[in-house]
Fold:
Amino acid sequence: MPLINSILNLINYSRLGEIEYFKKNPIEIQENQFKMLINRASGTYFGQKYFFNEIQDRNEFAARVPIHDYDDIKSYIHRLMKGEQNVLWNTETKWFAKSSGTTSDKSKFIPITNESLEDCHFRSGKDIFAIYVNNYPETNIFSGKTLTLGGSTSVNPLSENSYYGDLSAVLIQNLPFWTYFKRIPKPEIALMEEWEEKMQSMIEASINKNVTILVGVPSWFLVFLKRLMQKAGANNILEIWPNLKLFIYGGVNFLPYEEVYHSIIPSDKMMYLETYNASEGFFGIQDDLSSDDMLLMLDYGIYYEFLKLEDFNQGKTQTTMLEDVVVGENYAMIISTNGGLWRYLIGDTIT
Structure:
C-alpha cells in the first residue's frame, strides 16, 4: 500500500467507522439530524412561524410544516439576499448557489451556509476519497493531480456582503488553499466566465501534468477531453495522462456517454464513481463500484422524507419516512437542511 494511502486510512479511520455505523443505524442517525436541525433553527423567523420549539417528533414536524417548492420559500430567500439574517438558519448566510434559468425571475438562488459547506459539500469530498481508498488500498491516484471542470463559474455580488454563482463557483471561492496543492486548474482559471477562453486555459494548465483523477459532469468533460486530444495530437487520453485512474462524476446519466469514454480512455483499470449532488445539498456516493446503487449520506445535516411518485402526481402530501421506504418504488425526495431549506421538494425522484 502506498504510504499516502496508509496515512489517509489512519486519518479517516474514525470517519469510516461513522459511515459504517449509519449504514447499520440509519433511523437513529436521521432522528439525530432532525433534532439538531429543529433545535438550531428554533429561533429563526421560519422556526418561530412554525413553532419549532414545540415540535416533539418527526410526525408533528410533517403535520405542522407544509411541503415547500422554490416559489413557496422565494420570499424568505429574497430577505436573505438583501442581507437580513436569522430567517431560515441561525448563522450568517452570504452565499447563494444559482441554478437553472437565465434571469432572476426564473433562476433559483439556494442559500449556502457555513454548515452546509463544511458539513455537507466539503465533507462529501473527503468521504469520497476515504471510501475509495478503503476499497482500493493499492491505488496510486494521489501520485498526481485532480482536474476539476465546473460550469459557468463567475461570482457576482448581491450586496455588500453577499454573493451568488453556480455551486461550483461557491465551492471554489470557499475551498481551503491547501487543496490546490493537488488540484488543477487554479481558481483564476476555474472561475473564468467565457467558456472558450476557459477551455484553452484549462488545456494549457493540464496537458503536461500528471493527471490521475477527473471530477465533473460527463457531458462537459467530454467536450474538454476531445479538445485536449486534438491539441495534443493524441489518439486517446492515456497518451496524454497515462496514470489516469478515476472519474468522479454526477449531474447526468452516464450511460449515454459510457461507450465513448471507454473508447477515449481505453483502460480496464479506469474507474467511474457516481455521486448525487445538487445546489441544495450532497446526497449520495457510489460506495461499491460493482453496483450501480448509491449510499445515501445520512449525517450531512440533511433530514430526508419521501413522497411516493403516484401520490405526488395526485397532489397528495403524506410522506414516507426512511424506515418505511420500499426499495424499487419511485419517490420524490423532500429535504430539510442545514442550509435553511425546510421540507423542500427538490424536484428529483429516486428509486
Summary: The chain has 13 helices and 14 strands. The longest helix spans residues 114-135. The radius of gyration is 21 Å. The domain at 118-295 is CATH 3.40.50 (Rossmann fold).
